[in-house]
Amino acid sequence: MALEIKTIPVLTGEAAEKFLQAAEENEVNPRRERIRFSMEEIRQIANSGKNRLKHLQDGLNKS
CA 2 to CA 52: how far, in whole Å? Predict the structure, then answer.
């Protein structure tokens, strides 16, 4: 059975012009902001992920 080939949307007209203008402005003036976390916050995030993973593994082992 063949998979359907999906069409790719194409911007035209005014929508395309607005998109290009916004892209060019963003290239010249990017609004990049640094994300700042303390080491303690990073540890908490890492431990949270580890705890969730352990919880999922424990649930799988009980089955």
Answer: 39
Triad 54, 58, 63: Cα angle to 5°:
150
Q: Determine the residue type at 2.
A: A
Model-level pTM greater than 0.85?
Answer: no
Our count of domains for the chain comes to: 1
Q: Are 19 and 11 in contact (CB under 8 A)?
A: yes
Q: Give me the domain span that covers residue 57.
A: 35-62
User: How many Cα atoms sit within 13 Å of 9 on the Cβ side?
Assistant: 3
13 in any annotated domain: no
Average pLDDT of every residue of the chain: 85
